[in-house]
Amino acid sequence: MTIESCSYPMKQKLSILTVAPLLFSISSAELVITEVMSKSSHPADKDWWELSNTDNEAVNVEGYYWDDDGESGDDGAILPDITIGPGESIIIIEGEKSDFEGMWAPTGLQLFDEDDVTGPDLFSGLSSGGETLSLWDKDPNNHDDAVLIDSVTFPAANPGISFEWNSAGTPLGLSAEGQNNAFIARSNGEGEAGTDIGSPGEYVEAGSLVSPSFQPPLVATWRKGLPLENSAFRVVASDPNAGEIISISIANQPAWLTLTDRGNGTAKLGGTPPEKGVFTFQVRIEDDSEVTNPVTETFTLHVFGDNNVVLMNEYNAVAAEEFIDGDDGEGVDTFFDREEGNGGDWFELAVVGTGNTANSPVTPQAGTTVDMRGWSVQITTSLIPKTIKLSQDDYWAAVPAGTILTFTERSRADGGYDTAINQTSKLDTEGYLWTNIQLNDPFFIDQNQSNFGDEIEINSSNTQFIVFDASGKAVFGPSGEGVLSTDTDNDGFPDVSPSVNAREVYKLEQDPSPAIDAMFAAYDDGKSSSFGEPNVGSAGAFVQDFTPYVTSNTPPSFTSLPILSPDEENYSYTITLSEAATIKAETMPEFLTLSGNVISNNRPITFDDVGTYAIELLADDGEATFNQTPQKFTLTVGSPFEQWLAGFGISPENANPDNDSATSLEEYLFGGDPTSSASFPILSISDGRFIIDLRRGVEDYLIDIEWSSDLENWSTELINREDRSDSPLGEEYRRNAYSYNGDSALVRFFRAKVRVAE
User: Fold this and answer.
1) Residue 351 CB burial class (10 angstroms; 0-12, 13-18, ≥19)
2) Residue 699 is part of which domain span?
3) How far apart are the first and last CA of the chain?
4) By CB atoms within 10 Å of each CB, which of 95, 311, 431, 491 scores lowest?
5) What is the tally of structural domains in the chain?
6) Nearest to 28 by CA among 64, 3, 76, 79
7) pTM of the predicted protein model
């Protein structure tokens, strides 16, 4: 049995720091930690570090122990039998070697990943917020005589840029292209141009003249109307060459921004930002050696404002393989309950509106709306920010104050949630609405102007959010881990950044109000979450109060999930609502009719209808305020074969998933189960007749019965269909019998060939 044709239709960390970042090394013997990448921009976000042998003799490091939690050595990994040649560097990699190789294309460089080491923690990940990395000659947990070989301490990372030390353990700061052997990675790990900067496999000899380098952070946050002189942010540069003087200058800055070079490798920013927004400028550093090259970096200053119309309310940092509050914890989400990944990557905004500006500070005001058409949310975890662009859909034109907006990467089928407008409607009692937007939704997310691809990369490594309006002006944020939001010394300026781990969420533990700004908001980590509902404080005593947004009416909610494909030639979707309302069909294909609350086909759906159709419904309760709720979805009409495959959970591209002697198409036509190798079509010869069971109503495919006497030359001549009868396979099939009217003395072979009807 063969198929002649099978072409059937298919369907950074941002912060204000009070002191210069700590970056130093304790070095012993000839082994030196010479590079650390604690925040790769690779999509898998895999860290790595470099160990170099600066001696003229080889060193074997079998049994050496390293730990990334400081000098305690409590929880680390043991190196295997590795010989490092004179002047050679090796790389220790989180994840798989292929991730690293795909980015850096190393030649002759020894790479070791989690599969090569042993110990209590193979590679827990280097903290992008800064920590200490240490190496011993043996496990210090089991050997009192373990010797600390080298230890380096590094500050918060700039995404995609490594820290470097020379052969004497002197810190060289951040890698810069063309400086100290550093270069840009060949790839980003997904086939696009690389952005990471480092020098894996290369280190700088002590005594070499090197250019000065910047110390992070290169990104800062501040508030509109507050003088930058009151902030602790400084430009910090370092130069390992003794006696050299560094000069610092600024270019392309906004008119209000100044820089004062202090003459000691640091410079102070000054001026008062008159408005909120994102400001970039260039800072140049050079030393007086007249040998090394100047270095220029782009700095970014995010300026907050007051009277924010939207707030970051909560985001999920729980890793895919983790439970909220850990395996042994009791934390749950009020919607997702307790499951791995806690619903996947999602975040939640609270729409608070313009508020009552007559009051100081601005207070919530019920009944106001926000026009969010064309707005965007920027998510920064990797070096390349992800952008979610809202569409021009009418829904975004008037989003009520009190709306909780959740955005999910996963669909309902993948453990997340599908788009549901006004899914929970409690404006008249508790003051909030809940709307969820699934990020792949083409109606509410502008897919062409968004760049999040397959994932938005929300995790526990300094994920931060900025919301921009349609003009590109920042209206809220940055908000997230690494943004200062707590004033511990009560000097009027925040000095502590909340942190979150891979078993927690990040959430606002404060009543939502337009007067809140991210810089002073009560954000905290949490071991429970409340997707689509007011936040509950970590201790459980605090619950967000949305009652200032109570209005007299709530819009209706669709309580039914749309049917996304027909059942072969028929379609039926019964619509249910939270309250009595009129249902209108704004957009619908001609073969469907809305009657009351039921959408059904007005004629059989045929092969000619194969394609996708936008369906837009509108529920209207007739009230004057917030009275309409849309439901928009895409109806996919596949061929009967595609629909049959979908019933087994098989895509049309999978030709033979059960690896038997028949393709899925052949099993569809002639009777078989594509998921079971024990079930396949039976074609038989009885009384000189060729017998097949053929599915009824398969006008899309033509079946040719052929004969041969040598298995090389085949013909349809002299083949006649003798009769049809009921098939033992059931009503969906018809048994067909064919005879050969040629020379009966010949040995005859029969086959059925399938081709697509023109």
Assistant:
1) buried
2) 656-756
3) 21
4) 491
5) 5
6) 64
7) 0.65
